[in-house]
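Friendly challenge for the regulars: who can give me the structure tokens for this chain first? No prize, just bragging rights.
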Amino acid sequence: MQWIANDVFVEYFDESFEFRRATDFATENLSGIYDIHYSLSAGEPEGLSNPVFLQKVEAFAQWYRQQPEVMHVSTITDTFKRLNKNMQRDDPAYYRLPEQRDLAAQYLLLYEMSLPYGLDVNNQINIDKSATRVAVTLETLSSNELLAIEERAQQWLKENGLSSMQVPGASTSIMFANIGSRNIRSMLFGATVALVLISFILIVALRSVKFGLISLIPNLAPTAMAFGLWGLLVGQVGLGLSVVAGITLGIVVDDTIHYLSKYLRARREKGLSPPDAVRYAFHSVGLALWVTSVALVAGFLILSLSHFYVNSSMGIMTAVTIALALIADFLFLPPLLMKLEENKA
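First reply, four minutes later:
Bragging rights claimed.
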């Protein structure tokens, strides 16, 4: 279910925003705004000059360059290869990593000494030269795609890297992808659990296990139907939509409580048959459910005009859920009640 817990943060803003237009231009013509950084350690001070370590870093960089989502990979091994070529009269055959540790150390010292005043290599290697940074620039990706390529990278490091190189990728992109994924799943799960718990509370409030369990259907069905419809038409659920279940929870449950309480009053206090009890419930709360639902749907649909995707998608999804809840209470719940109690008329 790849449509679950997915976000493309840049696409939160439509093209009416200058930020979106500038980001798209930068991605198409310069570099992407999505990146992953790795601090790969050699496991010892001055270990950066170890040819074995350099070969592993180079192999990791080359693996990343072969991935279709990658735009650029920055690594210190490119500097070593360029220096090795320059020191051999720019012979292309020497565009490779130095094979001796002392030669690699001399190249690194030469490079540091040749930098302009005020510059150093601390943005690529640490102070004791035991670790180096590999920076990967990516195309615009969804949170699922970003986490997937990081997972593949971790698998490569596990299978091919040194033990000291087993580190996770880090960046603001990775951070927000994980935050978004966890928040989305947690909110969807929490809303589902809340609906179930509320239905158990209704068992006590309505003094009936049967009607408490029946309330599960009109409480859960509208949200499930709305997410299913969105999944078919749009294909992914983002952070904005994850709050819809919680927002609509009170409204959906409120409609169910009103309808069932009036139905049970008609059955218990007035002694009406199931069809007559349904008519009584419609007469008592039907108009109120229509008015409140229409007002809420209209109000949330206004959010669909927003140019910020989180707001517009949340407004549309909430309106659809409330509309489906009204349909369920009017067209599904009454026949269900009459069918389950047809022998008690």
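The chain has two domains: 31-170, 183-344. The beta strands are 34-41, 70-74, 131-138. Your move, everyone else.
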